[in-house]
Specification:
The protein is α/β, with parallel strands linked by helices. The chain has a single domain, classed as Ureohydrolase domain (Arginase, Chain A, 3-Layer(aba) Sandwich). It is about 35% helix and about 20% strand. The protein has helices at about 25-30, 35, 60-75, 90-100, 135, 145, 170-180, 185-190, 195-200, 235-250, 270-285, and strands at about 5-10, 10-15, 15, 45-50, 80-85, 105-110, 160-165, 180-185, 205-215, 250-255. The strands form two sheets. An eight-stranded parallel beta sheet has the order 4-1-5-10-9-6-7-8, with helices on both faces. It has a two-stranded antiparallel ribbon with strand order 2-3. The longest helix has 17 residues, at about 60-75. The mean pLDDT is about 95.
């Protein structure tokens, strides 16, 4: 029986619908995301997450989107969720939904991002809620809000591998250094250190969630968004790490986040994202 994939569209950025990064999920769906996921035989269903309209409080609306994702994932436990999201925080909802369906499964998180996303309210210079997404997922920040996401429990640091970070400030570097989150920088990937890090992760986990903020890619591929910075991975390097992770652990779910179509150059990042979805569809089988 073919794998069933649930393509979940989360068209929000900082609580606002369909603007900036929030425009990316719908644009990828329109460009054929479902067909790419299903190209290797998977049956693909499509769902769109919504949160109530009204005055957009960034943290509250962002957490509401996480909760909606968690409920969507938990309602379809036989499906493999692939989320297209404006913000990285959608991954917290995916993980919560997986946990609600199977509390005993130890899901690793392969967090591919130019930024650490480990900022705290006390360390963030911008106050950008989504820059705290991994801090929230690992229990460091916003836990009163996170408690409203059904199924949420902090992910232990030992189950997280951060990949491709190349635009971190000093506070975030210190937070990562003080954590037990394993890190693979761009130089580590190019030096062939991915295998050992993934082997270690596989000893602690039963499956893997692949999280890709597209600004992990170098802007020479195409700028994913206004936060893109030089020094990132190539598309081949990113796909190589993702494939190597799924060689070791079954794919539980995936998030592809933070594409702002207005920043794209000649559709190059759109094509790169669709290629990544094609890979995820193949690996899901």
């Amino acid at each position: 029986m073919p794998q069933r994939i649930r393509l979940i569209e989360v068209p929000y950025d900082s609580g606002r619908h369909g603007v900036r990064h929030g425009a990316g999920p719908g644009a990828l769906v329109a460009a054929g995301a479902a067909a790419r996921l299903g190209a290797h035989g998977a049956d693909v269903a499509h769902a769109v997450v919504t949160v109530p309209d009204g005055f957009a409080v960034e943290a509250a609306h962002g957490t509401a989107a996480m909760g909606a994702v968690a409920r969507e994932v938990a309602a379809h436990p036989a499906d493999l969720p692939v989320v297209l999201a404006g913000n990285c925080g959608a991954t917290l909802g995916v993980l919560a939904g997986l946990r609600a369906s199977d509390p005993g499964r130890r899901v690793a998180v392969l967090w591919c991002d130019a930024h650490g996303d480990l900022q705290l309210p006390s360390t963030s210079g911008s106050g950008f809620f989504d820059g705290m997404a991994l801090a929230m997922a690992t229990g460091r920040a916003w836990q009163r809000l996170a408690a409203g996401v059904p199924g949420h429990a902090p992910v232990p640091d030992e189950r997280v591998l951060h990949v491709g970070g190349h635009d971190l400030d000093d506070a975030e570097r210190a937070l990562l250094a003080a954590s037990r989150v394993a890190c693979l920088g761009v130089p580590d990937v190019r030096a062939g250190r991915s295998a050992a890090a993934l082997d270690a992760l596989a000893t602690r986990c039963d499956a893997v969630h692949v999280h890709v903020d597209l600004d992990v890619l170098d802007p020479s591929v195409a700028p994913a968004n206004s936060y893109a910075a030089p020094g990132g991975l190539t598309a081949d390097e990113l796909r190589g790490v993702v494939a190597a992770a799924v060689d070791r652990l079954p794919l539980a779910s995936a998030t592809v986040a933070s594409w702002d179509p207005a920043c794209d150059v000649d559709g190059r990042m759109r094509r790169t994202a669709l290629d990544l979805l094609g890979l995820l569809g193949r690996l899901a089988g």
